[in-house]
Amino acid sequence: MHSETRADLHIHTCYSDGVYSPKKLLRIADEKKLDVIAFADHDTIDGYLAGAEIAEDFRCKLIPGIEVSCYYKGFDIHILAYQFDPKNQALLDVIDYNLQERENRVLRFIDKFAEYDVYLTPEDIKTEKTHILGRPHIANALVKAGYARNYTEAFNKYLVNESPTFTAKRALSPQKVIRAIKAAGGISVLAHPFRLDHEQILYDIIEMGVQGLEAHYMSHNKQLVGKYLQIAQEHDLLVTGGSDFHWPTKNKKFGDYYCTKVSKKILNNR
Q1: How far is it, in rounded angstroms, from Cα 138 to Cα 169?
Q2: Measured between alpha carbons, how far is 237 from 208 in angstroms, rounded to an integer?
Q3: pTM, 2 dp
Q4: pLDDT tens digits, residue range 60-107?
């Protein structure tokens, strides 16, 4: 029995853009001897709620989690939330807004595609297995309709910011998201900070009151981990870690990455 707490607090289920069900992820977490996990699905807590119903059947502890989309100075910002009250109306209002905007954005993409002789319908994108809509689902639909050879080509050709068919997200501000998480009794954490091209954005979000930093992240090398741990210490921020797992690849299986340095307040808040 290991003495350290093994945690992965950034996992996506089939309720957003992951491929595994909550039950399968909990089962693998037990097999890999993880101690604490969080499903951080994009703009939905349905994966967490489904997992919470069966979590007692597994040794691994499941804590409330979500990854909330917001927008600031031209950047997509993702704020992780943990240990919140899943019935809190302020947080549910934020979730409802983002889910509706996801639907609206798909329609804007479809209209934009038509200008370039690319024709999709909402039914092409939203299948029976799709719980929420995002660019990955559009990319898969583009491949299925024959407009791209594979997922990567579809994303790079039609869905990245530089593409002529790109349509921006109309997301909430980080301030509003952070306030809603706080109102729900949760802990707000800036996800994968290395993706921010301008470091000033990071400090702006700290000024807005975010409570933690995802310093331990699968794509962070030792230098980046050290950098973000130092920033967290300087600004009295909590520290989290996660794999951002969506689906298995040749060199990336769920449970292979975990963090043993997560702030205890996040693990044991509720």
Answers
A1: 14
A2: 13
A3: 0.93
A4: 999 999 999 999 988 889 999 999 999 999 999 999 999 999 999 999
